[in-house]
Specification:
The two termini are 32 Å apart. Mean pLDDT is 78; it is low at 1-41 and 279-283. An eight-stranded mixed sheet has the order 3-10-8-9-7-4-5-6, sandwiched between helices. Strands 1-2 form a two-stranded antiparallel sheet. The chain has helices at 37-42, 67-80, 97-103, 116-126, 147-155, 177-194, 210-215, 225-235, 260-274; strands at 12-15, 18-21, 29-32, 57-63, 85-90, 107-110, 132-135, 161-168, 206-209, 240-247. By secondary structure, it is an alpha/beta fold. The chain is globular, with a radius of gyration of 18 Å. The chain is built from nine helices and ten strands. The longest helix is centred in the middle third of the chain and has 18 residues, at 177-194. The chain has a single domain, classed as Spore Coat Polysaccharide Biosynthesis Protein SpsA, Chain A (Alpha-Beta Complex).
């Protein structure tokens, strides 16, 4: 299996050419944190390469009919995170997505139960022993070059989930006004019912620690999965960071599978249902 080299720190992060010096992203901000001393003790950095135990990083790409985009997405992450596993979780694609992914150098795992939630849950189950899972959509909307910045806080033990907060590129029409309004409505519902600060609840670009993956119990079948991940982090006091990333139009030839009204209702229903789990148990 391909493995990364030196573990990133606040001054060095992995790049295609090895490592480069960098400062922590000035625009990053903390979404949620835990004040629990026990949680602070439990949160420890990943083993460093100095101990000859390089971190195991996997890029998980849920896909449904993304053949025109998936090869470019895979190539971008192979360059951004040399040594990482690239695994496509193919959700019954009929357009040759799996074949394109294999040709591009990724492993492909079939997910027979339809829905993004099922694909994400399959990724967590398949990759549960990795030090970092980086989740990203297969449509080309998220920049692979931001991957090292999202992965670094996990490796440093500063967060259990890092969210790539979408910032639509100006003039690119990456996000419709209707979806923007829906995001605001969902965010408001989350704040009222869950009671914690929330940023980009619906981002499909996230990095997770092994502790996060082992702590949560996901049940979502569809696009409400991202909101369920945010709820789990809040209820279990798993430290979370949000880092702004550009959000780009989908690669030509792909189409969105999200229905603003149908999926919006399901997302809000997930928040309401999970509200009753606030005080304990696995999320």
């Amino acid at each position: 299996m391909r493995r990364v080299g030196d573990e990133p720190s606040p001054s060095r992060i992995p790049t295609a050419a090895g490592t480069r010096a960098t400062s922590p992203a000035p625009t990053s901000r903390r979404m949620a944190r835990t004040d629990s001393p026990e949680s602070e003790r439990d949160r420890t950095p990943m083993p460093s390469s100095a101990e000859n135990v390089p971190p195991r990083i996997a890029v998980a790409i849920p896909c449904y009919n993304e053949a025109p985009a998936v090869a470019a997405v895979i190539a971008g992450f192979l360059e951004a995170l040399p040594g990482a596993e690239i695994v496509v979780f193919d959700n019954n694609s009929t357009d040759g997505t799996a074949e394109e992914a294999i040709r591009a150098g990724a492993e492909v795992v079939p997910v027979p139960d339809q829905g993004k939630g099922h694909a994400v849950r399959a990724a967590f189950a398949r990759l549960a022993d990795r030090d970092v899972i980086l989740l990203v959509d297969g449509d080309g909307t998220y920049p692979a070059e931001a991957a090292p910045i999202l992965v670094a806080p996990i490796l440093e033990g500063r967060a259990d989930m890092v969210v790539g907060a979408r910032r639509p590129e100006r003039g690119a029409k990456a996000m419709s006004p209707l979806r923007g309004i829906g995001n605001l409505l969902i965010r408001g519902t989350f704040r009222v019912l869950i009671g914690r600060s929330a940023g980009d609840l619906l981002s499909g670009y996230r990095a997770f620690s092994r502790r996060f993956v082992e702590s949560v119990r996901l049940t979502s079948a569809g696009f409400e999965i991202e909101t369920e991940l945010a709820i789990a982090a809040a209820m279990l006091n798993l430290p979370t960071l949000e880092i702004p990333v550009p959000y780009r139009p989908r690669i030509a030839g792909t189409v969105s599978k999200l229905s603003p009204f149908r999926d919006g209702r399901r997302i809000i229903a997930t928040v309401i249902r999970r509200r009753t789990w606030r005080d304990g148990g696995k999320a």
